[in-house]
Structure formats: structure tokens, C-alpha cells
Amino acid sequence: MSDKKYSNYSDDSIEDTRRKKIDEFKRGFDKSVMSDDYDVDETSVHEYKSDDSYVGYSRNSSSLKRRKSNEINSYSDSDTKRRIERESKKALKQQSKQDKRIEKNKARRNQKMFKWVWFAMVLIMGIVLSQVLLVGIGDMLAISREENPQIVQVSIPDDATIEEIADILYDSKVINQPKFFVLYANITTEEDYFRQGDYKIETDKDYEAIINFLQSNVNRTDIVTVQITEGMNVLEISNKLLEEGVIEDVKEFQDVCNSDIFDEEFPFIAELEDTDARYYKLEGYLFPDTYDFYLNEDPESVMRKMLNNFENRVYYTEDKYFGSSKTHTLDEYVAKSKYSMDEIITIASIIQAEAANNEDMYYISSILHNRLKNGAEMGVSQLNCDCTVYYPYREYEDVPDSIRDTYESTYNTNNFSGLPTGPICNPSLEAIFAAIKPYDTNYYFFCHGTTDDGSVPYYATTLEEHNYNLTLID
Asked: Are 297 and 247 in contact, with CB atoms under 8 Å apart?
């Protein structure tokens, strides 16, 4: 039966059909390999004879791998590689441009957002600042203060800062905006210009008026009236000022008294000689008078007041003492004598310390002048004034205990001829004029007795007369 079935086909026809099927199979196999649908481990490998006759298939894994590798490498020639590299670079460049565009868009959006935020902040700050300025300016001009102003007491301590002063004024309701006051004060004035002390100030003053008020001692209320009496020396004056609360440190006051800070301001101070040999340089020039000082006042300010008073009251002397209708300086009258200005003040200081009254001053002045001029001829070449023995102390008891028994003053007129190095106290105007114009006498000695009415002077020309007078006062 099978013979009949294939009897209608010739051998050539069968062979052609077989070849066609093999060709179709090959094309299908190649497509499978090219499309990577071919499983190396599991795909069957068909084998053929040299004449293309089909033998069968076997699973040959290594063979398939080699074939697949050869087929892939066939696409990796140099041209293909260069083309792939170009396309890769082009793709990267396009991606970079795309990223830059994205970043640029983000930056543009962020910048726009920043501008809006900045604008909002500036607007808010402007509104806040305008409110602060309005409030501050209102307080600066005293517009926003109380309608019914009051007078309040404020105390400015020594070396207070502007910030501390502003707080004091705020607590006293003199100002309402202390920070704005500090800003204004720092721009318009110096911190050192403010004066310490107590003030009574109105609460309706603007900033400029407040600052001017606090920079003037004229407006202070902590005033102390102190009387510096004729004949007080620097030690006594400094202790008096300490007791009254005018100064806080005696040594500081005495150091200022020995300084050179007043030389350019006062010509009669600049002319002083041998100042290093003095106990106190300005002794004799702190004019005795009644002064208004401030509590805890600067020692330099205290001393300047006294020197100004000496200049006004003494240096530019009153004409009545010399019968002149013109204004003269003291050195014009001093020039008519044989002495310098400082020597006249030194003589006046001894007169002030020794005289019992104003009349006595002119007699004692004559005795001092006589001894200075003719003392050696009369056997009294030294002044022998008791008031000079313990200077700068008044008496023996005033010398400190540690040096009292051995103390020797360089001003002691029992130890040398002529005048001491400088004044021993601060003389009155009367004593100064007595030193310039003494009475014309022949006296060389004096002493004082004590009565119920005061001291009684006795004068003598000779030592014998003087010894007799001494018996009258014992």
C-alpha cells in the first residue's frame, strides 16, 4: 500500500521538495539566532552532511555560544563603533543641554520667588522702621510727652555712659524712647561732656534741650557752699573740701595742686620758679573766699575756680588800694618793688599767718621788709617766723606721729636767711597789699599778747625792747 502511495512521485521531485524544506529551516534558524530568541543551553543543533543531506540534531551548547559570539562581533566593526560613540556623545550633549534648561528654569523661578520675598521683607521693614522713626522723632521733639509737664529730680553718677543716662531719664519719665535718645546723643555730642550731679529738669524738654541742660554745671542742684578762710594752707583746704563732700580724695586734690596743667591758662602760675622745691606748687594762689562747689566735683574744676578768683580779685586788682582811677594788674604794682610776684605772695602769706588784724598786717610787713633789707646790720639776718617752722603743717601737733620728733621743714626761717621757697598759706587781698606797701617804720621785732578782746601786737626796734615786750605778754 505504501508503494502505491509514493509511486506517483519521481525521485527528482522528492529531492527538490527536501531541499526546499531544508532551505526554509535554515532561514528560520538564522532569524531565530539574529533575534536573540535562541536558547543556547536548550536549542537543538541540526547537523548536515557535506552534500546538505540532513543527519539529525544534537544539543551542543559550546557550538551555539561560538556562533552567537561570531554573529554579534560581526556588528562591532570600527565604523559601527565610531557611529555608536558619536551617537552616545550626541545623546549626552543633548541630555546636558536639557539639564541646563531645567536648572535655568528652576533658577529663574527661584529668583522670581526671592525677589517677591525680598520685596515683602523690605515693605515690612519699611513699615516697622517708619513706625519706629515716627515714635522716636515724636519723643525727640517732645511731641509725644505728657500734656502736663512736671519737674523731676535726676541724679547722674560720675563717669556715666550715654546708655546709663538714657535709662535714668527714662525711669524719671523725662524721655520715652531711651534707645532713640542714645542714637541721637551719639551723633550730636560726646559722652565726656555730660556732668555728674543732681538736676531738676522738666519732662517736656526735647533731646537737644535735655543734653544742653545736663552738660552745664549751672543747672546742678547738689551745690555745697564752702568758706575758705584767709590763711588756710593746701592741707587744710583739701581736708575742708573732703569734709564737705566736694572732693573724694585728698591726695588727688594735692596732686593736681602740684601739676602743670594750669601753666598755659594762668600766666602768674607759668612764671613760678623752683617749683620742685615747694611742698605745693599752687600754695598762695588758691584765693580764700566763699565758693559754691558741687558734690564730688572734679579736683581740677575746684582748683580752677580758686585760680580764676585769684586772677579776677587779685591779679586784676581793685584801684581803691592804690588810689588809682585806672585798672592795673598786680604785677604793675609789684614791679615798683624789689620783689617778684611770687616773693610778694610769700611775704603776704607770712603776714597773714602772723598778723592779729588788718592794721597789724602793715606793721608786720614793715618788719619783714626791714629784716630782708637791713637785718644783717641789726643782728637779725633771719626772719625767725614761727609760722614757718612746721610747714606744711600748722603746728607741731599737726605733724604725723611717725615723723613728728625728727621733722624739719625746708621752709623754717630759723634755719636760713631770706624768704622760704614759696608761700606758706593762701593770703587775703589785704595781706597782699600790705606786702606791697608796708608802713614806713624802724621796727625789726614783734610779738603778740592775748587779751579778752583778742591779740595785742607789740613792736620793737631793738632786741632789748623786744625782750621787754615779751615780759608784758607772759
From this structure: yes
DSSP character at residue 220: B
Distance of alpha carbon 369 from alpha carbon 235, whole angstroms: 28
Instruction: Give me the phi and psi of 223, to 5 degrees please.
Output: -95, 135
Fold of 151-219: Dna Ligase; domain 1 (3.30.1490)
Bridge partners (DSSP) listed for residue 293 = 224
Q: Where are the domains of the chain?
A: 2-73, 151-219, 223-320, 331-473
Tell me which DSSP letter residue 163 carries: H
Phi/psi for 463 (5° steps) reads: -65, -35
Q: Is 128 exposed, middle or buried (0-12, 13-18, 19+ CB in 10 A)?
A: exposed
Supply 403's cell numbers: 615723723
Q: Dump pLDDT digits (tens) for 350-401.
A: 999 999 999 999 999 999 999 999 988 888 989 999 999 999 999 999 999 9
Radius of gyration from C-alpha coordinates of the chain: 59
Q: How far apart are CA 256 and CA 299, in angstroms?
A: 7
At 164, is the secondary structure helix, strand, or coil? helix
- The C-alpha cell 534558524 sits at 29
pTM for the full predicted model: 0.65
Reported as a single tens digit per residue, the pLDDT across 227-263 is 999 999 999 999 999 999 999 999 999 999 999 999 9
Q: Is 159:114 a contact under the CB 8 Å cutoff?
A: no
* CA angle (452 as vertex; 450, 453 as ends), nearest 5: 90
* Cis bond upstream, residue 157 (ω within 30): no
